[in-house]
Design a protein that fits this description.
This protein is an alpha+beta fold and about 700 residues long. It is about 15% helix and about 35% strand. The chain has an 8-stranded mixed β-sheet with strand order 37-38-40-39-41-42-43-44, with helices on both faces. Strands 13, 14, 15, 18 and 19 form a 5-stranded antiparallel β-sheet that branches.
């Protein structure tokens, strides 16, 4: 998934001058000071929760303060990547250490703590991943080299459930690259409630074209790494759904329809044990929930169609409440993302939420109520509400205006809220399910005091109207001691991708703040196509990615240039990933409006990007060639006014997401057009410049801006 992905690393970052070096270190230190509570898991009683502290798992009570109880007899030296309790909370399965595969996936080593001893498990597996307890807690299912295995905890014996897994060919129980990246899914299996059956997806990717990625660190054993990557319009994996009877070992293939070129992004079992799966067509404008009856029949219990596309599903798009009812989050009925209660047999029962605002997340559901985050007070903010499933008795539970993230307990007895605003770092609290304060876990008072003493500039929010009459949300960061009689250089920072949001009332610091410390103004605006302002605003960029979004960023640049306190000859723009695509388009179409542009890991042609992301927003290239070509930077290189706009291209050579080919083809096009530009290449680094160079690229961008803007 293309998204603005700022992973900030601590360390000494050498700038050209000692003062600049100190400023950047100070920002890194302040960001690291913004503490939160990490690794939260609610225990099944709903009265206790656990967190990761010093490579151990520590249990606390929600209701009462007190020292936590360390659950492991000793810390895990290699660190805890993830952990999960057995259904009865008596055992803990721990992933220790991680060897990344792609963005979400990794192999690891597993440990089991049964309340008495901590011991390694699955030791016979070469590359175990995606392990989980069975519903009775007696066994563990995991994946190893594209096959599924069942490990019996008591006997310590392993049974192989599939046998045809093969790299770049067949995958059982985990997902291929594009499902992982775009549907946020790695574990592609699910237990029935009684633990007797296991449903899983099988990916046949033999016909999917391969991508080549160069590595020079020797970790892969070969300089050229090949993996399956379906670009827009190309062949996807053929995905099938199977169910294994764990007692007999028998396997049944589930009929998922006549289309071989479709998506099955989620599978699971309803509370009464019936198998369900999600089905989406290749165009991604039809979404169905299929329920399988015990005798083999199936029926569609929910269907959604849209002219452009149905927003991509996640784990909480559909939530089963009991054997007869389920909750759906969708936008097609009213043009805003809201909650609807459905019956398995009766269809739509009630619209649970309504209004010109959006439900952004379902936090928790009980048989009578639902808790959710929404933009009801502002598209820039998130607040927690609860409402009865009939749409009545709505209550706002969060007191402040800003941005809340919520970690619920089982049964919604309690929740842990993390709040921040543009001027306020994290405050972490425990509250009861009806919003009553229990206690505060973190206030970050030391950070608040330092920010106040330093008069750290905070985002100021504003709106402006473009020449076309569109009102856009934006923020501005001004240097300390801002003097409106002076003229300042301006950097536009943006992402601009479909459904995204950069302008939000939450606390953050990043490399751009180092420029604010050096006397620059930083501005960001969410143009047409971004999220949380309704379906119409979001989907108007469909089929022409880069057209309207570029117009809006150019309008922002002209708006800033018109301010008396802006140096109109010193305006720059920056973006990463989709934002890099936009920074390039603005530099090329700006006709010298920008003095400088920085494009990190940019998409330079949507023909080179993956099927799911590109086609949902741009249709298939077979049916929309103009939407792929008219706004592709590689086709517009001749437009760069390199005498007035200094351009920096940055890319990691081991980027499995936006491949290095994008920047290579852009460089080729610029060379052929006789244009001058700058380029920074990072061998063996991925889309976020990890594992080694996340801080180096930010240092480069600061230096480049100070020199050329």
């Amino acid at each position: 998934m293309l998204r603005k992905f700022f992973l900030f690393l601590l360390g000494v970052c050498l700038l050209g001058a000692a003062q600049a070096r100190g400023e950047y270190d100070r920002i890194a230190r302040l960001r690291a000071m913004n503490r939160r509570v990490g690794g939260i898991r609610s225990m099944s009683d709903g009265e206790h929760y656990t967190v990761i502290e010093q490579n151990n798992i520590v249990r606390y009570a929600y209701a009462t303060a007190g020292p936590g109880q360390k659950l492991l007899p000793e810390p895990l030296v290699s660190g805890i990547a993830d952990y999960a309790f057995s259904p009865d909370d008596r055992s803990v399965l721990i992933a220790s250490g991680r060897t990344p595969i792609y963005r979400h996936s990794y192999t690891t080593r597993y440990w089991l703590f049964d309340g008495r001893a901590l011991q390694p498990v699955l030791a016979e597996a070469a590359a175990p991943r995606d392990a989980s307890f069975s519903p009775d807690g007696r066994s563990i299912v995991y994946s190893d080299r594209n096959d599924l295995y069942l490990y019996d905890i008591a006997s310590r014996k392993t049974r192989r459930l599939t046998s045809d897994g093969e790299w770049n060919a067949v995958i059982n129980g985990t997902t291929d690259w594009v499902y992982e990246e775009e549907f946020g899914l790695t574990q592609a299996y699910a237990f029935s409630p009684d633990g007797s059956k296991l449903a899983y997806l099988r990916f046949d990717e033999r016909e999917v074209p391969s991508a080549q990625m160069m590595r020079f660190d020797g970790k892969s054993g070969d300089e050229s790494v090949s993996f399956k990557y379906p670009k827009a319009g190309e062949v996807n994996s053929k995905v099938q759904l199977f169910v294994v009877d764990l007692a007999s070992g028998g396997r049944e293939r589930i009929d998922t329809g006549s289309e071989s070129d479709q998506y099955l992004p989620r599978i699971g079992f309803a509370p009464d044990g019936r198998l369900w799966y999600h089905r989406i067509n290749r165009r991604q404008n039809t979404f169905e929930v299929q329920l399988c009856e015990p005798h083999g029949a199936q029926r569609t219990i929910y269907e959604e169609r849209a002219q452009q596309y149905v927003e991509r599903v996640d784990d909480k798009t559909v939530t089963f409440i009991d054997k007869e009812r389920f909750l759906v989050r969708q936008e097609s009925h009213t043009g805003f993302m809201h909650l609807y209660l459905y019956g398995v047999r009766s269809g739509l029962i009630a619209q649970v939420t309504k209004g010109p605002w959006e439900v952004t997340e379902v936090v928790g559901v009980t048989p009578k109520r639902v808790w959710y985050l929404s933009t009801e007070t502002s598209p820039l903010r998130r607040n927690l509400y609860s409402v009865a499933l009939n749409g009545k008795d709505k209550r706002r539970l969060t007191p402040d205006e800003g941005y809340y993230a919520i970690a619920p307990s089982k049964g919604m007895k309690y929740y842990i809220s993390t709040f921040s605003s543009a001027a306020t770092p994290n405050r972490v609290e425990i509250r009861t399910g009806d919003g009553a304060a229990v206690r505060t876990l973190e206030t970050n008072d030391d950070l608040r005091a330092e920010l106040a003493a330093a008069q750290q500039p905070a985002k100021e929010f504003f709106t402006f109207v473009t020449e076309r009459g569109d009102t856009l949300n934006a923020y501005i960061l001004k240097p300390r001691g801002f003097d409106p009689s002076q003229r300042y250089p301006v950097l536009l920072t943006q992402y601009s991708g479909p459904g995204s949001q950069t302008v939000a009332d939450r606390w953050s610091l990043d490399w751009e703040d180092a420029l604010v410390d050096k006397g620059y103004i930083v501005v960001s605006a969410d143009g047409r196509g971004t999220g949380f302002r309704g379906e119409k605003f979001k989907k108007q960029t469909y089929g022409r990615l880069g057209a309207l979004e570029t117009e809006d960023q150019l309008s922002l640049a002209r708006h800033m240039a018109a301010q008396p306190w802006v140096d109109a000859d010193r305006i720059g723009i920056y973006g990463w990933s989709y934002g890099g695509f936009m920074a390039l388009n603005c530099a090329l179409k700006g006709h010298g409006l920008f003095k400088m542009a920085i494009a990190v890991a940019p998409v330079t042609s949507w023909r080179y990007y993956d099927t799911i992301y590109t086609e949902i927003y741009n249709n298939l290239p077979q049916y929309n060639a103009a939407g792929y070509d008219d706004h592709a930077p590689v086709r517009l290189a001749r437009l760069l006014d390199d005498r007035r706009t200094r351009l920096l291209l940055v890319h990691g050579m081991a980027d499995d997401n936006v491949h290095f080919r994008h920047t290579a083809e852009m460089a080729r096009a610029l060379n052929r057009a006789g244009k001058q530009y700058d380029m920074m290449v990072y061998p063996d680094q991925n889309h976020s410049m990890m594992p080694d160079d996340a801080h180096n690229v930010r240092q480069k961008m600061i230096d480049y801006t100070l020199e050329h803007l």
